[in-house]
Design goal:
It comes from Cucumis melo var. makuwa. Homodimer. One of its GO terms (molecular function) is S-(hydroxymethyl)glutathione dehydrogenase [NAD(P)+] activity. By secondary structure, the chain is an alpha/beta fold. It has two domains: about 210 residues, Quinone Oxidoreductase, Chain A, domain 1, CATH 3.90.180.10; about 140 residues, Rossmann fold (3-Layer(aba) Sandwich). Strands 4, 5, 6, 9, 10, 17 and 18 form a seven-stranded mixed β-sheet that branches. A six-stranded parallel β-sheet has the order 13-12-11-14-15-16, sandwiched between helices. The radius of gyration is 21 Å and the shape is globular. The chain starts with a strand and ends with a strand. About 50% of the residues are buried.
């Protein structure tokens, strides 16, 4: 990394980043210029980042390129922009793909984590001036989810990062900035799983297994995991799954199988795949009267949902979940504390540790279904 100025003020710096030049094209390690943080922004030295399925999906399908993906990350504050008072150089932070301004209607409601100011950013530019902080030879390189952590350095709005204890390992807790927290929150905040209840989870990736962990902590009596990958069976037990069901091995429909296991349908169903057709299946595997289906997956195709009104007339409920309902800046420190006290598992989701230069290997492993989370380690 090199800086363009020896001044005490933050200057443009040059570092390495994994740039996606087009949909589905292998990422290329490039020298990029990273602008200094503007008002209410911070520049972060990324320490560890992991590949989330939404990165993979966007890389395959989205139209904004060239781009730096990555949003599940941890790092150290390198510099702060004007007006920033809550962060200082050297602070350890988690990045947030959806921010929290703490002043808008949603942030102050106590009912929502959908910040009206710093919510999901899909346009590839910074909130404040609609410009990028990355460039190569003067040409803009676009952001992803307000984070872009596949870079040695990145710039985020101060509302899109949260300070964490210096004592916790950054290479582990990066998973809390998206997948693990999303699953735990869906179980605890959105569904509010009760003790002794029955739960079915469609899709046993990191998010689905985090739902399982959350259900286990809440004392669910049955936690049924549904996945077409037979290799998920054993690891699922680690996170609390009591029954593993592979639809490819069932003669009856999966909802019929679930209804038999649960004596009439599960209390809670979670769709963690991103398949709108599977949402209908999840609804059908819930019990009448109070069955609740929570959808966490983000579909790549066919985003419209079709369901028979009788599903809801019979008392079933469908809810959506973004980041598990957590208010990210307010709530994530409590999850970090739970990890420190060994009240929740994180390390067990990390199936591969990969060097930054080998980042494309992480994409291959996820496409082939051979990993949960690949943690990518940036150069020190």
């Amino acid at each position: 990394m090199s800086s363009s100025s020896s001044s005490s003020f933050p200057a443009v710096l040059t570092c390495k980043a994994a740039v996606a030049w087009g949909p589905g094209q292998p990422l290329v390690i490039e020298e990029v210029e990273v602008s200094p943080p503007q008002p209410m922004e911070i520049r972060i030295k990324v320490v560890s980042t992991s590949l989330c399925r939404s990165d993979l999906s966007a890389w395959e399908t989205q139209a904004i390129f060239p781009r730096i993906f990555g949003h599940e990350a941890s790092g150290v504050v390198e510099s702060v922009g004007p007006g920033v008072t809550e962060f200082s150089e050297g602070d350890h932070v988690l990045t947030l793909f959806t921010g929290e301004c703490k002043t808008c209607r949603h942030c102050t409601s106590g009912k929502s984590n959908m910040c009206q100011v710093l919510g999901l950013e899909r346009r590839g530019v910074m909130h404040s001036d609609q410009k990028t902080r990355f460039s190569i030879k003067g040409k803009p390189i676009y952001h992803y989810c307000a984070v872009s952590s596949f870079s040695e350095y990145t710039v985020v709005h101060s509302g899109c990062a949260v300070k964490v204890s210096l004592a916790v390992p950054l290479e582990k807790i990066c998973l809390l900035s998206c997948g693990v927290a999303a699953g735990l929150g869906a179980a605890w905040n959105v569904a509010d799983i009760s003790k002794g209840s029955t739960v079915v989870i469609y899709g046993l990736g990191t998010v689905g297994l985090s739902v399982a962990q959350g259900a286990k902590v809440r004392g669910a009596s049955q936690i049924i995991g549904v996945d077409i990958n037979p290799e998920k069976s054993e690891i699922a037990k680690t996170f609390g799954v009591t029954h593993f069901v592979n639809p490819k091995e069932c003669n009856d429909s999966i909802q019929q199988v679930i209804n038999r296991i649960t004596d009439g349908g599960a209390d809670y169903a979670f769709e963690c795949i991103g398949d709108t057709g599977m949402i209908t299946t999840a609804l059908q595997s819930c019990c009448q009267g109070w069955g609740l289906t929570v959808t966490l997956g983000v579909p790549k195709v066919n985003p419209e949902l079709t369901a028979h009104y009788g599903m809801f007339l019979s008392g079933r409920t469908l809810k959506g979940s973004l980041f598990g309902g957590w208010k990210p800046k307010s709530d994530l420190p409590s999850l970090v504390d739970m990890y420190s006290k060994k009240d929740i598992q994180i390390d067990e989701y990390i199936t591969h540790n990969i060097s930054f230069e080998d980042i494309n290997q992480a994409f291959t492993l996820m496409k082939e279904g051979k990993c949960l989370r690949c943690v990518i380690h940036l150069p020190a």
